[in-house]
Design goal:
Strand order of the largest sheet: 12-11-6-7-10-9-4-3-13-14
Number of helices: 2
Shape: elongated
C-alpha cells in the first residue's frame, strides 16, 4: 500500500484560563446573505457575566459584549455584527449579542482573542478565510491556538451557529510519535500525532549503531512538537520516547523512531518534471526521489529555478521522507494526477517501455503555492543551505521522436545514457508517484542486435483504397542476454560530402529480451500520440502479417528517409559504436521477385551476421513487421522437417514451453509454408505463410492458436508444405507434438 504524508505543523503553547470561555466557530468571509459572527461556549464550572468578556482581533483594541447576560456552564453565546439582522430561528437557550465596536475579521488572515476578567481565556488565528464558509473547532479539549484543531465547516449551509460543529471530533486515541529529525545545527525535533500540553516531563533515550545510548529528561513544548533541543553530536540514529499524555488524558505507549537528517549529495535526486502543461489538467510539479538508506528531513532544503528561490516546506513545519519515497513539489493538488498515473500504469503493465517503473515506498506532497517552472532556458537546482544536491536543465531534455506534441507530457531522468532526460511514455503523459529504477539489462555490443527486415520502397497511392505503407526497420536481440536499447540510432557511413544526419529512434531506457523484436517505423504526423492508434495503423497496412512474437513498437514522427536506389544503414549504440549494418537496394531481393515496390527485404538467418544472407519477403502483405524471424539453428538436416522435442508445457517458464521447428531443402527456389492442426484435422494456426527456403526456415510454436489463446492439451500435427517455385512440384512433411498442461 502507498501511504501519503502531509507536513506536520509546529505551533507554540499558551496557558489557558481555568474557567475558559472558548471560541467554537467564526465566519470571517460571509456570503451575500450572511454576516460575520463569532460563537463562544462557556466550558468552566462557574457562571460568567458577559460584562466581564472582551474580544479583540489582532489590533490592540478590546470590544465589549452588548447586551449583558449571565452565562452558566454549557451556554452558547452568538455574537453577530448586526444583531438586528439575526433571523429568529435560534433556540431560546442561545444567547444573542454583538460586540462594541465590532472587530472586523479580515479575509486575508487575522487573530481572535477572548478574555474573561482581563485574563486570556482562548485565542486562535487564521491565514486565509474560505468564502461563505465558517471556521469550526474540532475539539474543546485541545487549545484554540493549535491550528490543526480548526477546519472549514463541512455543513451544506456553510456554517453551524448554535449547532454542533460539523468537524467536531471526540478524542479517543492516545498520542503517537510521528517522527524525529536532526537539523544541521544539531537541533533534535520530535513530532507528535496530536497537540500535547506544555511542560510534561518526558524521558528520552538516544541510540546509535553499535554505540552507547544517551538518556535525558525534557519538558514538552506544547503543540505538535514534543521538544527541540541541542544534542552532543550527529551520530544518533534512533530516539526512544517514554509515555506522553494528550489534553484528553490518554497516555501513549513508549516508542522508538528513526532520526531523519538533512540529505547529502546523492541521497535525494530530481526524478520527474512537468514544466510545459497548458491543458489545465495536471499542475506543474517536480518529483524528488529519496535514494538514501535512511529517512531524510526536507525542512532545510530549498529549490531554485533561474532567479527564484523556494523553500520546500513553510517555516515552522517539517516533512520527513522515508527511504525510497517520492516527494512531489507542486503549487496545486496532485491527488488526481497520482491516482490517474497509478491506474494507467496498472493497465499498461505489459508495456516494455514501462518495465523500469515501480511504486515508491511512500508518496509525500509539499505544496509551494508560488511555484512556477519556466519552460525555456531554465535550470532547476535542489539545495541544502549553500550546497547543491542535484540539478536538471531544460536544455538537457531529449525530445522523444514518437510524439507530435509535448503539451502536458513530463520529462523523466534516466541513468547511464547520454540523454539524461526524456519524455514520459505513460499514455496519460505524466507519471507522478512512480519512480525509475535502472533497467535490468546491459548495453548491446556488436553481434547482439541484428537488423532482420527493412521496407524502404513503400506503396503510397491516395486512390487505391488502401492504407499507405510506411517505412520500417526491424531489429532482433539475437544474443543470450536482455539488452537496454535506449539511446540507439541509425546512421550512415561518412563520405566526401560529410556524415549523414543521424536518426535517433529511442531515448528512453527499454529492455529487449532474448529473441524479442523492436520495430522502428514511420508514424505520420496526422495520427494521434496514442499506442493504440500506432498498432491500428500497422494492422490496417499489413492485416495478415502479425505473428506471435513479442514486439516493442518504436514509432518515429519523421520519415526514415530510406533510399529506394540503395544505401548503407548503420545501427549505432548510444556510445556511437556500430552494432550492425545492412545495404538496402534491389540487389537484396530474390531474383524471382520482379516487382519489389511495397515488398520488404528479410534476413533469413539473423544470427549469422552475413550481409549477403538477405532475400525478399514472401508474405501476401509484402512485409511482416512484428513477425518472428528465423534464427540460425545448428545440426540442420539436409532436407525435410525437424522438431527439437515431441512434447511441450506452454504454461511452464522453462525452455520446454516451445517447440522449435526447422524445414531444410537443397533447392533454394523452394517456398515453404508451415501450419499446425489438431489431431482431428482442425486448423490451429499458421507459423510460416510462405518463405523461400534458401538455407533453411526456422520457427517456434508456443502452444497457442492464431488468436494467441492457449490450446487444449492433446496431440497436434505440424505440417510443412514445400513448393518448388520453378517446376511447380510440391511435397509435405508432418510431425506430431503433444501439448501438456
Amino acid at each position: 500500500m502507498i501511504c501519503r504524508f502531509l507536513p506536520l505543523l509546529l505551533l507554540f503553547a499558551h496557558q489557558a484560563n481555568s474557567q475558559p470561555v472558548l471560541i467554537s466557530e467564526y465566519l470571517p468571509a460571509p456570503s451575500t446573505h450572511d454576516q460575520e459572527f463569532i460563537e463562544l461556549i462557556l466550558k468552566g464550572s462557574s457562571n460568567v457575566s458577559t460584562g466581564d468578556v472582551t474580544v479583540r482581533d489582532r489590533s490592540p483594541r478590546w470590544s465589549h459584549v452588548d447586551p449583558a447576560y449571565e452565562l452558566v456552564p454549557g451556554d452558547t453565546l452568538l455574537l453577530f455584527r448586526y444583531i438586528e439582522k439575526v433571523p429568529e430561528t435560534f433556540s431560546p437557550t442561545i444567547k444573542i449579542a454583538t460586540l462594541s465596536p465590532w472587530p472586523i475579521l479580515n479575509n486575508t488572515g487575522d487573530s481572535l482573542v477572548v478574555q474573561v476578567s482581563a485574563l486570556d481565556s482562548d485565542r486562535t488565528g487564521y491565514s486565509s478565510a474560505p468564502a461563505g464558509r465558517s471556521i469550526e473547532r474540532k475539539s474543546d479539549v485541545i487549545p484554540g491556538y493549535i491550528e490543526s484543531n480548526w477546519a472549514p465547516s463541512r455543513d451544506p449551509a456553510g456554517s453551524t451557529p448554535g449547532r454542533r460543529n460539523s468537524v467536531y471530533e471526540v478524542d479517543t486515541t492516545a498520542p503517537r510519535v510521528l517522527g524525529a529529525e536532526l537539523s544541521l545545527n544539531n537541533q533534535l525535533w520530535i513530532w507528535m500525532s496530536e497537540a500535547l500540553p506544555r511542560n510534561q516531563s518526558v524521558r528520552l533515550q538516544l541510540h546509535q549503531n553499535q554505540g552507547p545510548s544517551f538518556s535525558m529528561t525534557v519538558h514538552s513544548m506544547g503543540g505538535h512538537s514534543l521538544t527541540s533541543l541541542e544534542v552532543p553530536d550527529r551520530m544518533w540514529t534512533d530516539v526512544s520516547v517514554s509515555s506522553t499524555r494528550d489534553y484528553a488524558g490518554y497516555e501513549s505507549e513508549p516508542s522508538t523512531v528513526e532520526i531523519a537528517r538533512a540529505p547529502v549529495r546523492g541521497e535525494v535526486t530530481i526524478n520527474e518534471v512537468l514544466y510545459h502543461d497548458k491543458t489545465g489538467g495536471v499542475p506543474e510539479f517536480i518529483e524528488l526521489f529519496v535514494a538514501s538508506d535512511h529517512s531524510i528531513s526536507l525542512r532545510e532544503l530549498s529549490l531554485s529555478t533561474n532567479q527564484t528561490l523556494y523553500s520546500l516546506v513553510p517555516q515552522d513545519t517539517t516533512l520527513l521522507a522515508p527511504s525510497g519515497a517520492a516527494v512531489l513539489l507542486t503549487a496545486g493538488n496532485m491527488d488526481a494526477a497520482v491516482d490517474q498515473a497509478a491506474i494507467s500504469f496498472a493497465r499498461e503493465a505489459k508495456n516494455p517501455h514501462l518495465e523500469h517503473l515501480t511504486s515508491p515506498s511512500a508518496i509525500l506532497t509539499a505544496i509551494i503555492p508560488s511555484l512556477r517552472i519556466p519552460n525555456r532556458e531554465s535550470t532547476i537546482r535542489l539545495h541544502v543551505q549553500s550546497d547543491t544536491l542535484d540539478a536538471m536543465s531544460i536544455n538537457e531534455v531529449c525530445f522523444s521522436p514518437r510524439f507530435e506534441t509535448y503539451t502536458g507530457r513530463s520529462v523523466r531522468r534516466q541513468a547511464d545514457l547520454p540523454c539524461k532526460w526524456t519524455h514520459s511514455l505513460l499514455s496519460v503523459g505524466t507519471s507522478p508517484g512512480l519512480i525509475s529504477l535502472p533497467v535490468q539489462a546491459r548495453p548491446p555490443i556488436a553481434g547482439d542486435l541484428r537488423i532482420i527486415e527493412v521496407l524502404y520502397d513503400t506503396i503510397e497511392d491516395a486512390f487505391d483504397n488502401r492504407a499507405d505503407q510506411v517505412e520500417f526497420i526491424e531489429l532482433m536481440n539475437v544474443g543470450d542476454e536482455p539488452l537496454d536499447i535506449g539511446g540507439l540510432y541509425f546512421s550512415g557511413p561518412e563520405t566526401d560530402l560529410g556524415k549523414p544526419s543521424d536518426l535517433p529512434f529511442l531515448h528512453a531506457q527499454t529492455r529487449l529480451s532474448v529473441g524479442e523484436i523492436a520495430l522502428v517505423f514511420h508514424y505520420p504526423r496526422d495520427f494521434p500520440d496514442d499506442a493504440l492508434h500506432e498498432k491500428r495503423l500497422l494492422r490496417s497496412i499489413w492485416p495478415n502479417s502479425h505473428g506471435p512474437a513479442r514486439t516493442i513498437f518504436l514509432p518515429v514522427r519523421q520519415r526514415l528517409g530510406l533510399s529506394n536506389t540503395g544505401e548503407l544503414i548503420l545501427l549505432m549504440s548510444s556510445q556511437g559504436i556500430e552494432l550492425d549494418r545492412v545495404w538496402i537496394g534491389k540487389d537484396r531481393h530474390h531474383p524471382a521477385v520482379k516487382n519489389t515496390k511495397g515488398r520488404s527485404i528479410v534476413r533469413l538467418l539473423s544470427a549469422t551476421g552475413q550481409l549477403g544472407n538477405w532475400s525478399s519477403s514472401t508474405h501476401e502483405d509484402g512485409a511482416t513487421p512484428g513477425y518472428a524471424q528465423p534464427v540460425q539453428q545448428t545440426d540442420r538436416p539436409k532436407s525435410g522437417l525437424r522438431i527439437d522435442r515431441t512434447s511441450i508445457y506452454p504454461t511452464d517458464d522453462s525452455a520446454d514451453n516451445v517447440v522449435h521447428i526447422e524445414v531444410a531443402s537443397q533447392n533454394p527456389s523452394d517456398i515453404v509454408r508451415i501450419r499446425v492442426f489438431s489431431a482431428d484435422g482442425h486448423d490451429v494456426t499458421e507459423l510460416v505463410a510462405g518463405k523461400f527456403v534458401d538455407n533453411g526456415v526456422s520457427v517456434a510454436w508456443n502452444g497457442r492458436d492464431e488468436n494467441h489463446n492457449l490450446v487444449s492439451a492433446g496431440i497436434y500435427i505440424i505440417v510443412a508444405h514445400v513448393f518448388d517455385s520453378i517446376s511447380g512440384s510440391h511435397r509435405s512433411y508432418k510431425k506430431a507434438v503433444a501439448v501438456l498442461l
